[in-house]
């Protein structure tokens, strides 16, 4: 008798690795055994663990853990792509952040990863027309993680936000796939206009710490924005920009800046060692 293969989403090597790491961590640090069991080992799937973690971190006197857990469970059941995006974000963090040595670290400890997953639940609520609840999630993410992402913003998968303090992403902003950004990045508007007013970040972009991208401008795919830059004009694909206001100072230096995470460039000579 033939055996019907399992759907791909039921085969999750990332989740199996997280569980194995949690079992090992429980043996190594038994004082945190309760955390590893309640957050990971107690759950049958990554979606269940994500829902539990979000509800634990964002609950307050105004919204109980149980209600938040039910909201998140509904979101993951209704839109399995949310779990796919979380898995891609987790792998991106593991591959790009040199301080990340295990898959369980982002899920348990990294506020950049956790804030993005909570945003995704808020975005799901926004798409369902549940605007007040989406705003509530945004507020709690800002209070808990210091990250302010409007629930209407559109963010791709494979996102890595390192340190994640003081991140601001506006209502009409879009962020492509495989983007990396560091702390204190702003994707903001330039005034009080109410239409499409925020940046559009392409795939594979690296945004340095403290960079501000302002207005309805496009940042081309696989480009680099240097730390502390203020970007007010469109950035062509595969370029490096720096300064206040930012100007093109060279090529992107490699095919995937957001993966390589190299923020150095030779500004005086215009020579970028990565491109050689």
UniProtKB/TrEMBL annotation:
<keyword id="KW-0677">Repeat</keyword>
<dbReference type="Pfam" id="PF00132">
    <property type="entry name" value="Hexapep"/>
</dbReference>
<dbReference type="GO" id="GO:0006535">
    <property type="term" value="P:cysteine biosynthetic process from serine"/>
</dbReference>
<keyword id="KW-0028">Amino-acid biosynthesis</keyword>
<dbReference type="InterPro" id="IPR042122">
    <property type="entry name" value="Ser_AcTrfase_N_sf"/>
</dbReference>
<dbReference type="InterPro" id="IPR005881">
    <property type="entry name" value="Ser_O-AcTrfase"/>
</dbReference>
<comment type="similarity">
    <text>Belongs to the transferase hexapeptide repeat family.</text>
</comment>
<feature type="domain" description="Serine acetyltransferase N-terminal">
    <location>
        <begin position="14"/>
        <end position="118"/>
    </location>
</feature>
<dbReference type="GO" id="GO:0009001">
    <property type="term" value="F:serine O-acetyltransferase activity"/>
</dbReference>
<protein>
    <recommendedName>
        <fullName>Serine acetyltransferase</fullName>
        <ecNumber>2.3.1.30</ecNumber>
    </recommendedName>
</protein>
<keyword id="KW-0012">Acyltransferase</keyword>
<dbReference type="InterPro" id="IPR018357">
    <property type="entry name" value="Hexapep_transf_CS"/>
</dbReference>
<dbReference type="GO" id="GO:0005737">
    <property type="term" value="C:cytoplasm"/>
</dbReference>
<keyword id="KW-0808">Transferase</keyword>
<dbReference type="InterPro" id="IPR053376">
    <property type="entry name" value="Serine_acetyltransferase"/>
</dbReference>
<dbReference type="InterPro" id="IPR045304">
    <property type="entry name" value="LbH_SAT"/>
</dbReference>
<comment type="pathway">
    <text>Amino-acid biosynthesis; L-cysteine biosynthesis; L-cysteine from L-serine: step 1/2.</text>
</comment>
<dbReference type="InterPro" id="IPR011004">
    <property type="entry name" value="Trimer_LpxA-like_sf"/>
</dbReference>
<dbReference type="InterPro" id="IPR010493">
    <property type="entry name" value="Ser_AcTrfase_N"/>
</dbReference>
<dbReference type="Pfam" id="PF06426">
    <property type="entry name" value="SATase_N"/>
</dbReference>
<dbReference type="InterPro" id="IPR001451">
    <property type="entry name" value="Hexapep"/>
</dbReference>
């Amino acid at each position: 008798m033939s055996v019907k293969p399992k759907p791909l989403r039921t085969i999750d090597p990332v989740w199996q690795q997280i569980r194995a790491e949690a079992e090992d961590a429980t043996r190594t640090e038994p004082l945190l055994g309760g955390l590893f069991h309640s957050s990971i080992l107690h759950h049958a799937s990554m979606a269940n663990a994500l829902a539990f973690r979000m509800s634990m971190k964002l609950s307050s006197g105004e919204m109980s853990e149980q209600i938040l857990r039910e909201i998140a469970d509904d979101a993951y059941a209704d839109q399995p792509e949310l779990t796919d995006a979380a898995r891609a974000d987790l792998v991106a963090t593991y591959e790009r952040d040199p301080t990340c040595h295990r898959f369980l670290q982002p899920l348990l400890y990294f506020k950049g990863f956790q804030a993005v997953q909570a945003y995704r639940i808020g975005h799901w609520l926004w798409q369902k027309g549940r605007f007040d609840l989406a705003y509530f999630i945004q507020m709690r993410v800002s209070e808990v993680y210091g990250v302010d992402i409007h629930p209407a913003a559109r963010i791709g998968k494979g996102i890595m936000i390192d340190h994640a303090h003081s991140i601001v992403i506006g209502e009409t902003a879009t962020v492509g796939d495989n983007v990396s950004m560091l702390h204190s990045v702003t994707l903001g508007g330039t005034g009080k206009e109410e239409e499409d007013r925020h940046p559009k970040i392409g795939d594979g972009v690296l945004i340095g710490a403290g960079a501000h991208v302002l207005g309805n401008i496009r940042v081309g795919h696989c480009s680099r924005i240097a730390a502390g830059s203020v970007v007010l004009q469109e950035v062509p694909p595969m370029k490096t920009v720096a300064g206040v206001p930012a100007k093109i100072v060279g090529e992107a230096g490699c095919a995937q800046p957001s993966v390589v995470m190299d923020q150095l460039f030779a500004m005086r000579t215009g020579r970028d060692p990565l491109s050689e």
